[in-house]
Here is the input.
Amino acid sequence: MSNDNIISIKNASIFQQDTLVLKDIDLEISKNEFVYLIGKVGSGKSSLIKMLNAEIPLNNGTANVVGYEMSKIKRRQIPYLRRHIGVVFQDFQLLTDRNIKANLEFVLKATGWSKKNKISERIKEVLDKVGMIDKILKMPNTLSGGEQQRVVIARALLNNPPLILADEPTGNLDPETSEEIIKVLQEISKKECAVVVATHNYNLLKSFPSRTIKCENKIITEIDKKKNVIDFEII
Amino acid sequence: MKKNNDKIALRRLRSSYATTVVSITLVLFLVGIVGILALTSKQLSDYVKENINVTVMLKDNVKDVDVKYIQKNLDASSFVKSTKYVSKDEAAKELQEELGEEFTDFLGYNPLLSSIDVKVYADYANVDSLAVIEKQLLKNSQVKEVFYQKSLIQLVNENVKKISFFFLVFSGLLFLISITLINNTIRLSVYSKRFIINTMQLVGATRSFIRIPFLGKSILQGFISAVLAIGLLIIVIYYLQQEAYEIVSFSDLRLISALFIIVIIIGILISLISTFFSVNKYLKIKSHNLYL
Here is the structure.
């Protein structure tokens, strides 16, 4: 990883099953940054996030993500890349067959933690950060959407990743809960890591302004911070 | 209320395991039944063959000493399973019962001959061997005739061959069906977890780490199913032992335990292999194909 960049993409294009989704991507995201990724449905936000998470391959250009070169990454390395990336999904994706504690336990055990007391200590720490400590023994389906999303954020934090990717984290939530979730994510970005949030919830951008990147017509453009506030309707 | 929900979710999970276990159990039970049939098929065919009667007709006015001598000789020979002396009077009685008429009365005498009913061992119950035996018996001057149904013996032997062949084909078919059924059941249960498998990959679990609990569970599942199937088989064996002890006996415990071990191995192997391939399928699949 050169200097402080968590992500640095050069000249990359992303394909979703042979269809070009984004081209000429040049993007750098450094430590502790909070970045919005906006654009219409189908504009390639999710594809960009999926490329960063190695869910879809990078064919052209180079992209360095938390120290891994995405154009050369091998299948065996992918799990290790993902240990440096926390992921938050629109549909939460908790393991529905076990309770919250076991959900977090699974991630820790999968990423090489073996000591029981350290595991339960870490679980309590992250659940405390998102204010969900009292739900530790609940099954995911008994929690509300906002609560599940908090747990997912806690899960993303487990391994102290330098990067958190959130693909429409508020897509299934009401406006108030959405704001809470974004607040939690912004706080995390200040203290711990870079956060990339793909969203089409522009109200959030108004309430919690930050660096914003727009996907449109198969390219990405940085939105000027000063203009940002004024040109909202154009977006 | 919420606690209740938790319980319901857990119960649903357990019942899905139970369904898988029950289906595997039933299939293994069928496999075991085929195994029992295979173990007893020789006994069954022997039973039929050894019930074929070879009647040695003795000359009229044969002496008791001669009868005993012939019977003893027969008993001593390697091909004879059992002999039974039927005297003139006994033969007449039997015939009378069959006819329902006192035929000796109007005939004025008993025309029947005394005979020895011989049952030969299954290995000798074929036309060739019986011809040799017949020749040997006829050497004795007291033997008038040796009588057996050649066509029946041929028929029995042919049918045993046919039945064994069909049985072999049938058990092969059943084995295929059982593999397919177990495979389908397991694939379905893994399919229901495809999203969980995908999530596990996204949070940084390696393929083998995801696979191991599935495989462990599949071994347990196969083992439990096999044990249950063996329980059912023991009931069947007990029942057969009670009801058909003349025909089949399960005195050879080694064979039975070998069968049980095979059932356990088949249960575990099929469960393990199909779980391995189904989990791998969903480990390799791209996430946007999960919804298909």
Chain A has one domain: 33-54+79-231.
